[in-house]
Design a protein that fits this description.
alpha/beta, 2 domains, 12 strands, 5-stranded mixed beta sheet, D-Maltodextrin-Binding Protein, domain 2, single chain
């Protein structure tokens, strides 16, 4: 009798859905820069700590911030945009919690891609973009910020070019292909694809022109309040970040030295983005091995958006950045 009861208890225990309440909706883009999340899901690093991400795909970064504020997703994993900062400035709590990607010298992420004919005709530098039509996703996007800073660094301003907001990355690619714009600024795998298909040439990689904290993981107010789940998610993310870093970002003798899991990370990234492995191999974006943010850089971004009229006033870092989830997770991983 006792054995029968024990068997029944075990049967019920193992047939009930495990961690059913711990599904976490994550807003993400199908980009190479999302590789850490893809690795974490595919390798089971999140499940190891009792959370199961449900990836919800978007076409641009700003809508993810909106969806987060509306409670449609729990976690956002994408670029840092003016929309995100303005939502927080408006009173909604969204917390930037970890690094998801930096524009960094030597690590291809976002590129300025120009029409083949223009490149062949001598358009070879940033100053040659003066007067040109440049396609991006949205005003206030990471591409808007990045392009503005690159132009300013080379003695130009956003007023010296015509910004064409095309809403989605796929639309920007089609606009370049159809010669509706002279250049676009998009992340991998789009630049590599444009070159592979023969209608675009990479003018420069953004990280070589202007390094910055382009992307992050951020939490909704509700998810951040569920501290145990939020920390557990970050444990899985930190473990995935280390795996990703050691596989594709490690350096030796001044150059990148792919680790033993390089091919696996390429295959996982290709699977989740739909990109071809040979395009993925062009390069992975840099991010901190432990997922730590360049917090001071976020302050610089906010100041730039205020200066250019996309934010009414500055936002204190303490109102938008909270690194305690990550630091708690890292301490737990060391035990």
């Amino acid at each position: 009798m006792i054995r029968s009861l024990l068997a029944l208890v075990l049967l019920v225990t193992f047939t009930l859905p495990a961690h059913a309440a711990d599904k976490v909706k994550v807003g993400v883009l199908k980009l190479t820069s999302s590789a850490t999340l893809f690795v974490g899901v595919e390798k089971g690093f999140f499940k190891e700590f009792g959370v199961e991400p449900e990836l919800v795909y978007f076409q641009a970064a700003a809508p993810i911030a909106t969806a987060l504020a509306a409670g449609q997703v729990d976690v956002g994993a994408t670029g840092l945009t003016a929309a995100l900062y303005n939502i927080v400035l408006g009173g909604e709590k969204i917390w930037v919690v970890a690094d998801k990607g930096r524009e960094w010298p030597g690590y291809p992420l976002t590129a300025i891609v120009v029409q083949n004919e223009l490149y062949d005709g001598g358009l070879r530098g940033v100053t040659d973009l003066k007067g040109k039509r440049i396609g991006i996703t949205q005003l206030g996007s990471t591409f808007h910020y990045h392009l503005g800073n690159v132009l300013e660094k080379h003695g130009l301003t956003l007023n010296d070019v015509k910004i064409v907001p095309l809403q989605a990355m796929g639309a920007a690619m089609e606009a370049l292909k159809g010669k509706q714009v002279d250049a676009i600024m998009l992340p991998q795998p789009f630049p590599g694809t444009a070159e592979a298909q023969g209608f675009g040439r990479i003018l420069a990689w953004g990280g070589d022109l202007f390094p910055w904290q382009i992307a992050a993981v951020f939490y909704s107010k509700k998810f951040a309040a569920e501290r145990e789940r939020a920390v557990n998610f970050m444990k899985g993310y930190a473990k995935a970040a280390r795996y990703y870093h050691d596989a594709v970002l490690a350096q030796k003798d001044g150059g990148r030295a792919p680790g033993p899991n390089y091919d696996e990370v390429v295959a996982i990234t290709a699977k989740y983005t739909g990109g071809k492995p040979e395009i993925i191999r062009i390069g992975f974006p840099y991010q901190d091995r432990n997922g730590r943010l360049l917090t001071a850089d976020i302050a610089k971004q906010i100041d730039w958006w205020v200066k250019h009229g996309f934010m009414k006033s500055a936002l204190p870092l303490s109102e938008v950045v909270d690194t305690r989830f990550l630091e708690t997770a890292l301490k737990a991983l060391e035990k």
